[in-house]
Amino acid sequence: MKKTLSRRGSTLAELVVVMALVAIVSLIIVSFSSMAYSFADRNEEEYLFLEECADAEAALRQFVAEMDDGTTVCGGNYIQTADLTKNLWVSSATETKKAYLEYGSAKIEFDAIQSVTFEKYTANLTNANALIRCTLKGEGAREQSFLLVLRCATNGGDVNV
Amino acid sequence: MCNLFSFVKNRAKCAKKHKNGKRGFTIAEAAISLALITIVTVTALTLFTTSEQAAARESAEAAALYLASDVVECFRTTDTLPAFRDAADFAGGELWGEIEPQGDFRYTMKHTRSNTVVEIRITLPEGEQETENAVISITATYNDHSVWGDAITFRKGVGA
Questions:
Q1: The Cα angle at residue A28 between residues A26 and A31, in degrees rounded to 5
Q2: What angle do CA B4, B5, B8 make, to 5 degrees?
Q3: Which residues of B touch A57 (CB under 8 A)?
Q4: For A126, which of B20, B70, B78 is closest by C-beta distance?
Q5: Which of A113, A134, B26, B67 is most exposed by smallest CB count within 10 Å?
Q6: CB of B151 within 8 A of CB of B137?
């Protein structure tokens, strides 16, 4: 009995086609993976920044309310009472340390917020009020700002618009 | 017809039919494969863009909420419309306001980060005139849909 075996190797053309297809599919997978990673990374940073902004706002409102005694002064990176008993400091992020906010014994470190700055406005406000615009900056063009209201001393404060 | 599905189901019959061991893809198989690849690709791209847009919208809405809250504070701490406008300009940086003929004070903010427009509309019942116990309504709008709205009773120079 003669047994016939159907042995046939692949031609060079077939191999080339298969390799080309594998290369194309690999390229698609790799580019998709990197795209997915960058999307996810960007979104995560965005949401983290928004979350930290909300936390920072809540903390700043609470601290500023405690300091609001009519003598509060404000600089680019601090808010303090005239008698210096209550101080709120903010520090921008550097290569070695994160941005943070310090009030008394409380210290809040930020991951997504790179800098916090204060700017004071007093013109034509009632009851010697002052508005402090707090600007929170993250990486790239991320930025949020909100107002804090103070009854600052009319002659106090280092920063004026 | 001896396609991929029938080949798996009835391997012996197909093997007999294709004695030389050669078997290519049919057009239907190729079409199905391409359709599947297209569906997966489009779905993935849609997911990516949707999540990106959601993050951008969240950011713009947060900015709108901050701005709406800031405008309320500006209104509470000022006595006159020019003073209010100056304070609101300070609050937003790149804001501009305009008084509409109907007496509404419309305040518009261009959110520069994502180049989207967040609009804050403040309705003053007496237009530019100051009134005590005035009820003002404030709405924040982003991409033509409202993200925040409130009405507060305000006594000028005294506070809310």
A1: 105
A2: 85
A3: 66
A4: B78
A5: B26
A6: yes
Q: What is the pLDDT of residues B77-98, one digit of tens each?
A: 877 767 777 887 788 755 555 5
Residues B29-37: contacts with CB under 8 Å, at least 24 apart: B29/B3, B29/B4
Reported as a single tens digit per residue, the pLDDT across B95-135 is 555 545 455 555 555 555 445 566 666 655 554 444 445 55
Q: Which residues in chain B are closer than 8 Å to A32, comparing Cβ atoms?
A: 41, 44
Which of A123, A133, A142 has its CB closest to that of B113? A142
